Amino acid sequence: MPDSQDHSHDGDFVQSLERGLSVIRAFDAEHPSLTLSEVAASTGLSRAAARRFLRTLVQLGYMRSDGSRFALRPKILELGYAYLSSLTLPEVAMPHLEQLVEQVHESSSVSELDGDDVIYIARVPTKRIMTVTISVGTRFPAYATSMGRVMLAAQPSERLDAYLESASLRGLTGHTITSASALRRELKKISDQGWALVDQELEDGLRSIAAPIHDADGQVIAAVNVSTHAGRRTLGSIVGDLLQPLLATARRIEADLTRSRASVRARSNG
Fold it and tell me: What is the pTM of this model?
């Protein structure tokens, strides 16, 4: 149905564009094809106006018709790809984090590696479980975090060697790995299994599990995690209950990023 908001006094409002978009929105999963009369009834347009919009969309390649019924063509996806191609990683990730948090009832974040630190670029919290407030822009030493370890484990051997030689592995809690050789072994394990679990190494009481986010070329560009309190979940519960939803979220973020970048390349090559 047409938007009920009154735009009659807005001199910049283009009513014909509004009507054309209402014709496109009339088609959905339950109504993949419609007759002229059905489009007119759904949008509130006259049959003559609906016919003009439908014929225009057909000529532009966004719609097809067999003479009596109309349906959208794949070209209509260009409109969505234009939006996806403008999205940054945080914008792509946020709806997936919100879905994950709603599913597991724990906080979730995305971060990137910046030097020797992780920097948070997206976050959906639940209950506060750390003494320090985490927000976008918060930084932590990569070696003591699940997201940092996932990204360190994906580094080329020369970069990892340089990091382990220069990093100051301070004991942030009594659980923190402070030995370069022990950290190297842990990173090898993470690389082999594809995810990282950190138990109270950044802060007492904080447990976190993380998975890598890859670009279309398979390079690890970020990480996504779920964090919880040690008093609420055992390590076994974290792996058993949170790992698969976390991995599925990482795959969905990767899929959206791939579509976004493919759209950018297609448009630049066009």
Answer: 0.66
